[in-house]
Design goal:
The complex is a heterodimer of chains A (about 350) and B (about 100). By secondary structure, chain A is an alpha/beta fold. Chain A has 9 helices and 19 strands. Chain A folds into 2 domains: about 220 residues, FAD/NAD(P)-binding domain, CATH 3.50.50; about 130 residues, FAD/NAD(P)-binding domain. Chain B contains 1 helix and 7 strands, in the order ββαβββββ. Classes of the chains: A alpha/beta (about 350), B mainly beta (about 100). The complex binds flavin-adenine dinucleotide and FE2/S2 (inorganic) cluster.
């Protein structure tokens, strides 16, 4: 078993910024990601980002990724990157069990930063396991990373930002979006994104959901129906749409299993789609020396994930005994940035979730 | 089903990679995962559910859900959505939980 000074698990925006702060402070970092390429969700985001200047707003996700990975470049000798490596187990004494190809090995970290992100939720409806029913992020991966269309005609389920953005990206790839259904009585995501796809002729049907997928070996059609006030389907309102793909964009659930294996205290927060770790203001979990940041601690955005990654990274570096220049000032400024990012109506849900965790917003 | 034109993505021609799916020779391209190459060839069914034998395709495409498990070069339960395609790979639909054979 090898000992490491600091281990960062997950190479998305949160993990990349945490690794950067640790390296800048002088620590050695082992960065682990199960994918071939670093970047997490950013690898497939071809659209311009919102948020503030400081978090690279109006850059495309894929370009932000380049900025973040380039920043790590100069720390070559102190940075060890293990890609295609999945952390499959965590022990209480900060030992990680890892799998890379057919090799199994263990690592021990003095400090560990978790930035494993979240996984997309499924939606219960008849035949929801048919090939052709795909999560929105999967559709995005297929198109934007591999240049492949998921199908020719798509029904999008969910009008949050992900559903809206992926609908637009489907059209950019030359795929027809036959319709978008949303169970709630209003559109969940930003209106700019919604207007963009409406202008291109996509019907957004609120108070509507999928009743079932139709098909033998894969999706051949989708049956949709109206919902009543209790979100129950109304008999007699069914209609069939000819589609070969049903794209599910109904939210994410944090990947906290590893944290739970090592006994970190978690709390169920509906707004964040599942169990999230309980953190102190330094982004440290209930286990000393174990930090967490990004979508894993609350489902939010890449912009806030990057800020949280920096806070966790700086604090982890300090706890290793490194002197971080202007640390107190920087951390205060970073907390302010988070507050700004979470302001206004789009941040309602995040603020509500954080309140349940006792975090001041 | 490869995207031919795109306003943002640069889709350069890439060298083909031959592989076998259920014994049949197919081609992916450099940069493909096994699942993306299969999808580009119109193959959507990757595995079968264990008890009811229902067809399964990929779901998350980033290694979270195991819906894309297939037998690759004799090894079962390979998450094909995050496994890079290599020349000559033998990929098969997986039935049941998979068996480990001595290599
Ligand atoms: C369609 C879409 C549009 C979006 N648009 C915006 C936007 O406009 N602006 C914005 O700010 N945000 C946006 N976001 C949100 C943003 O992408 C996420 O909030 C952000 O990527 C979260 O970062 P993260 O580092 O926490 O997690 P991720 O980016 O999910 O990274 C987690 C990483 O951890 C790795 N990992 C997980 N488990 C393991 C393990 N056991 N072992 C090894 N590695 C592991 C994963 O492979 C992954 O690389 C969008 C998201 C989507 C899906
Ligand atoms: S599709 Fe989810 S693990 Fe491959």
């Amino acid at each position: 078993m090898q000992n490491k000074e600091a281990i960062v698990i997950g190479g998305g925006p949160a993990g990349l910024t945490a690794a950067f702060e640790l390296l800048q402070a002088g620590a050695s970092v082992c960065l682990i990601d199960r994918n071939e390429r670093l970047g997490g969700q950013l690898t497939k985001q071809t659209h311009m980002f919102f948020g503030s200047e400081k978090q690279y707003a109006s850059h495309r996700g894929i370009d932000i990724l380049e900025i973040l990975t380039n920043a790590l470049g100069k720390y070559g000798n102190k940075l060890e990157i293990l890609t295609q490596t999945t952390v499959v187990g965590m022990y209480r004494d900060k030992v990680l069990a890892c799998v890379k190809g057919d090799k199994f090995f263990k690592l021990k970290g003095e400090k560990i930063v978790f930035a494993t992100g979240a996984s997309e939720k499924a939606l219960p409806f008849e035949n929801n396991d048919l090939p052709g029913v795909y999560a929105a992020g999967a559709v995005q991966t297929l198109m934007n990373e591999y240049g492949i269309k998921p199908g020719e005609k798509v029904l999008m389920v969910g009008s949050g930002n992900i559903g809206l953005i992926v609908s637009y990206q489907l059209m950019q790839a030359g795929v027809e979006v036959v319709g978008l259904v949303e169970a709630a009585d209003r559109i969940g995501g930003y209106l700019v994104h919604a207007s963009k796809i409406k202008r291109l002729g996509v019907d957004i049907l609120t108070k509507t959901s999928v009743k079932r997928a139709i098909g033998k070996e894969s999706v051949e059609a989708a049956e949709i129906w109206d919902l009543d006030e209790q979100w129950q389907g109304i008999e007699g309102t069914e209609r069939t749409l000819e589609v070969d793909t049903i794209c599910v964009a109904v939210g994410l659930a944090p990947l906290t299993e590893l944290l739970q294996q090592m006994g970190v205290k978690v709390q169920y927060v509906r707004e964040f789609g599942g169990n999230v770790p309980v953190l102190d203001e330094n982004y440290q979990t209930s286990v000393e020396g174990v930090y967490a940041c990004g979508d894993l601690v609350n489902i939010e955005e890449a912009s806030s994930a990057m800020v949280e990654g920096r806070i966790a990274g700086i604090n982890a570096a300090r706890s290793l005994g490194y002197d971080v220049e202007n640390a107190d000032f920087r951390i205060k400024a970073l907390h302010h940035e988070l507050k700004d990012l979470r302001g206004g109506p789009p941040g309602d849900k995040v603020r509500k979730g954080l309140k349940k965790l006792g975090v001041a917003t | 089903m490869r995207i031919k034109e795109h306003p943002i993505l640069e889709l350069a021609e890439k060298p083909p990679i031959p592989f076998y799916f259920n014994g049949k020779k197919l081609y992916g391209i450099e940069g493909d995962t096994i699942a993306s190459a299969l999808h580009a060839n119109g193959v959507k069914k990757l595995s079968e559910s264990i008890h009811l034998k229902r067809p399964r395709g990929f779901y998350c495409a980033i290694g979270n859900c195991a819906s894309c498990n297939m037998v690759v070069d004799g090894e079962p339960n390979v998450r094909t959505c995050i496994t890079p395609l290599k020349e000559g790979m033998r990929v098969e639909n997986q039935q049941g939980k998979g068996h480990i054979h001595a290599k």
